[in-house]
């Protein structure tokens, strides 16, 4: 490929709305172009990256026995009504009416359509297992699209769906996909981690996220350097402390804490460690009648150590909170505690509340909490002595660095990640409402067991850039670079030797299957180098008159601090060595 | 590829709604699956055909210097408002609102978006010419989707757009695309014709359709076997007859024609040739004021020979009718002619009408038309003698077989075609309203001259099938077959020799780059052969125990009446010969 036959358009400045480095660099390198909020065109430079990602995904999916098809972008609502997602999904599901006022959606995923295909096509146990996938445009009407293609509304996803005769088969299909995903992400050349994820309403442990490690990632991921343990923050368990609760040593005392409404302020004010404080979170659950009217409300007090954060997923698993909860209103709080947030605690509540203590809080002694009176906290609080044992003890919090690993093999470390893949055992979540069944050996209909497996194709380039960039621009791994090698001739228009050498090198590399671009635009060296450093092509060869006189070309990897002189006759074998590395 | 790792699902019967053979065969061969009206999933077998089509299109577009990008499916309305298409396009433009009630469309084409990209990216004459294309999902909310993927609502199109500094450049870009299109359609292995098409409001001759020849085609295409002339029916010119108008020989006479309201009935009733009759078509044009109120209506009488059909495109070019016309209402007809349709004519009209005669009618003598009195026609009508010369003479009709070719080199032939490509010189139709300009050598802004070039990717398989099928199923050309070769072992489960030979042949062919499928499903020979004849794989090799004992395999091309025995050792070289053919 020659630059003159391609569209290269780099920018000195990123647009003001580009907040993260991948968005800035993708805009500056001319990889994407904004059309509207969360809607981007993929410019030729960016499309080349996408196509390489798609090719790797496709090869490994096919190798794993999955079969590619292509399901529509615009889907009739009736399928989504069958599974109930038509009404369950919020405004992120883009709805549209056709000329006959019939309802359609623009697909965010394809569970309904693929299950409809399966229930028609897969009628016998002999046709199972089966894994069907497509790489197709999706739309999610995000409330706040941002970060360019990282959280866009229109995007491309590879979504695969497995169909099995029983749960054991589905789990084997899941494991096969887990293996394929590792093969895919290994090939991308990105540092990533597969982490256990919460599998929500389905239950079980079969859900994993594939996270590209990047300091700017939106997700916190948790792993143990001494073992295989890795999970996302939602999922990572905070074990119960092994040490038993110490005996009380302090007397209960109410102390004035004027204007100190946070644990941190209270700890500083009283000159006590934050770890001694306990924070109070007030939730509520409503019981409704058949007409949806609230007939009873239960107020809950959740107690966490002052330096810990609540984990909503874990809270949603506490018996009694697992059918849905909300934060209590200001009115409900005053009604039950007699004061406003900042000074709440489990002592002397006005009306009964259900108290749930985090595992850590349950073994604390001599702790500090609000007195249920404005500007006062109570110190020396002890379970059993000053208040009854909590109604329940549960893991309510996010883990923190240094927490013991749930597998007992070391301590947890936390880093940031960008979710680029997710695999999921679904069971009969979709096959049951859509009655997707097959006939078993006995001729009896059985529901298919399903799994689903996604890769965010258009998010991957952004994740790759968040992980691989420097002040000058992007640094692509070879596998997904828009071009693997760029040949930069200096003074090609003035020197027939330079022109001939550049074209020969380009042609030789192209003939041997290397994805090479010859920059024949005639830019000055400084502007040309800056472009390619911004765009992030990993391997660069510079050809100049002076170099040719010495019989040498200059090679520089995008990560190298300086160029290496390579004898002109050896440049092909030299490059082959570098490309294989 | 092994059949057991693929999804093969053939049907004995086509669904009742499949009217045309391509739709029936695509459904029966398991290539597509209906999701809703005009919305289909591409099943694995069909997707392989699509991918081959896309690859050929991509290669030839790139070879022609076009650059691929990817523009969004969902596009903000604002761009479509800039060009006016937001209001001009009818309900076939699928409109959708996002969660903020902002307007979007699901793209039917991408002129607006690509012009927006061009006006940002192409700022200098040095960056022109430029051709940008994408292969992307489109949606047109057809009033009556039908014929499967032939006229579907969701479809995939390759659409390219060229940008040039002037009209001469744009025409060169157009010619380059015309050449690329021929290369593309040549490679598909389908019989096609490039025909001149009407270029509508833009004017000029630069519009061509690429039509796959098929008896079931929706379009009539016209060509001259003795020259290069080819056009679609809308465009093909009916020359003015060379012979001058004969002198009148008959007297004018009103004759009773009770209940004979069509030219055909009148000719039969009077025992005169249909070619002597003249039919009357009544149109109207309205002049409106600034508020859109009709202030004046002009009624037009168009006269065509009784056996000729009106061509609306041509009528729309008659001065006075070229700003829009409609058919006259029943009231307007009675008001002007004093009688109802069936007995109309240019003689004795009640109120003045503008008379436009087709070129053919203008040179007729002694013709027959309605008497403007129910159940009466007039014979022996002659221009100049019985009525004034027409206000205008024009080409108003469709050509018929045997008409002289407009290039004067022979006579026209008509056949049916399916439009699969269209190339179009656009001028500044989009660049002007969107102000897509570049700076010329003098630093002066100039509007870009554009062209657009489409290929109906998802329609092509259907067109290919309409052209290539027999009673047993599809017959794919090699280039776009889902598989090029199918290896059919007989009794693979019983015979280790058959299994080994089949697998070796499959592996050898695959290793040499042949797209081969091994049917290891264990079907009986009859069912297996029927499947592959239905699916239409062009080359089949049958391996049986009996054959192997004789050292022979059986080869049969899908068009062959019988199989050819091939020595087992020569099958690879034999196939290579057949595949090259």
TrEMBL record, chains A, B:
GO terms for biological process: prolyl-tRNA aminoacylation. InterPro entries: aa-tRNA-synt_IIb, aa-tRNA-synth_II, aa-tRNA-synth_II/BPL/LPL, Anticodon-bd, Anticodon-bd_dom_sf, Pro-tRNA-ligase_IIa, Pro-tRNA-synth_IIa_bac-type, Pro-tRNA-Synthase_IIa_type1. Its EC number is 6.1.1.15. PROSITE patterns: AA_TRNA_LIGASE_II (PS50862). It is found in: Cytoplasm. It catalyses: tRNA(Pro) + L-proline + ATP = L-prolyl-tRNA(Pro) + AMP + diphosphate. GO terms for molecular function: aminoacyl-tRNA deacylase activity; ATP binding; proline-tRNA ligase activity. Residues 33-477 form the Aminoacyl-transfer RNA synthetases class-II family profile domain. Its main location: cytoplasm. Consists of three domains: the N-terminal catalytic domain, the editing domain and the C-terminal anticodon-binding domain. Belongs to the class-II aminoacyl-tRNA synthetase family. ProS type 1 subfamily. Homodimer. Catalyzes the attachment of proline to tRNA(Pro) in a two-step reaction: proline is first activated by ATP to form Pro-AMP and then transferred to the acceptor end of tRNA(Pro). As ProRS can inadvertently accommodate and process non-cognate amino acids such as alanine and cysteine, to avoid such errors it has two additional distinct editing activities against alanine. One activity is designated as 'pretransfer' editing and involves the tRNA(Pro)-independent hydrolysis of activated Ala-AMP. This is Proline--tRNA ligase. It comes from Ramlibacter pinisoli.
């Amino acid at each position: 490929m020659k630059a003159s036959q391609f569209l290269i358009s780099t920018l000195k400045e990123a647009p003001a709305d580009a907040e993260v480095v991948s968005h800035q660099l993708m805009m500056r390198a001319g990889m994407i172009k904004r059309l509207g909020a969360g809607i981007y065109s993929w410019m030729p430079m960016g499309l080349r990256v996408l196509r390489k990602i798609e090719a790797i995904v496709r090869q490994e999916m096919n190798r794993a026995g999955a079969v590619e098809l292509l399901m529509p972008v615009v889907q009739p609502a009736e399928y989504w009504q069958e599974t109930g997602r038509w009404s369950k999904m919020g405004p992120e599901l883009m709805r549209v009416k056709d000329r006959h006022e019939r309802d359609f959606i623009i697909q965010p995923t394809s569970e309904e359509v693929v299950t409809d295909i399966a229930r028609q096509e897969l009628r016998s146990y002999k046709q199972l297992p089966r894994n069907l996938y497509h790489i197709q445009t999706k739309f999610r009407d995000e409330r706040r699209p941002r970060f360019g293609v990282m959280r866009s509304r229109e995007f491309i996803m590879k979504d695969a769906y497995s169909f099995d005769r029983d749960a054991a088969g589905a789990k084997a299909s899941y494991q096969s996909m887990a293996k394929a995903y590792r093969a895919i992400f290994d090939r991308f050349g990105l540092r990533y981690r597969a982490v256990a994820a919460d599998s929500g309403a389905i239950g079980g442990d079969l859900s994993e996220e594939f996270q590209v490690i990047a300091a700017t990632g939106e997700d916190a991921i948790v792993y143990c350097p001494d073992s295989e343990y890795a999970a996302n923050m939602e999922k990572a368990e905070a074990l119960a402390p092994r040490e038993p609760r110490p005996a009380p040593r302090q007397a209960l005392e109410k102390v004035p804490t004027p204007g100190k409404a946070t644990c941190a302020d209270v700890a500083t004010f009283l000159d006590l460690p934050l770890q001694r404080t306990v924070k109070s979170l007030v939730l509520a659950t409503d019981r409704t009648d058949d007409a949806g009217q609230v007939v009873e409300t239960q107020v809950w007090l959740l107690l966490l150590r002052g330096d810990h954060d609540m984990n909503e997923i874990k809270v949603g698993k506490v018996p009694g909170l697992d059918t849905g909860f909300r934060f209590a209103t200001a009115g409900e709080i005053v009604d039950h505690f007699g004061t406003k947030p900042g000074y709440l605690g489990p002592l002397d509540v006005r009306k009964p509340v259900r108290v749930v203590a985090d595992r850590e809080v349950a073994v604390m002694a001599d702790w500090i909490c609000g007195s249920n009176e404005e500007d006062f906290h109570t110190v020396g609080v002890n379970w059993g002595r000053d208040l009854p044992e909590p109604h329940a003890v549960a893991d309510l919090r996010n883990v923190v660095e240094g927490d013991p690993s749930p597998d007992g093999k070391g301590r947890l470390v936390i880093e940031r990640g960008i979710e680029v893949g997710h695999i999921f055992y679904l069971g009969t979540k979709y096959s049951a409402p859509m009655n997707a069944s097959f006939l078993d050996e006995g001729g009896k209909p059985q529901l298919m067991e399903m799994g689903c497996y996604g890769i965010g194709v258009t998010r991957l380039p952004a994740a790759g850039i968040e992980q691989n960039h420097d002040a000058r621009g992007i640094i692509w791994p070879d596998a997904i670079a828009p071009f693997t090698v760029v040949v930069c001739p200096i003074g090609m228009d003035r020197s027939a030797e330079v022109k001939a050498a550049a074209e020969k090198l380009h042609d030789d590399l192209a003939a041997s299957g290397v994805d090479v671009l010859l920059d024949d635009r005639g830019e000055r060296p400084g502007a040309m180098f800056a472009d390619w450093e911004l765009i992030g092509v990993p391997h660069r060869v510079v050809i100049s008159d002076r170099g040719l006189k010495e019989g040498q070309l200059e090679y520089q990897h995008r990560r190298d601090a300086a160029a290496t002189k390579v004898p002109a006759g050896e440049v092909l074998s030299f490059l082959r060595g570098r490309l294989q590395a």
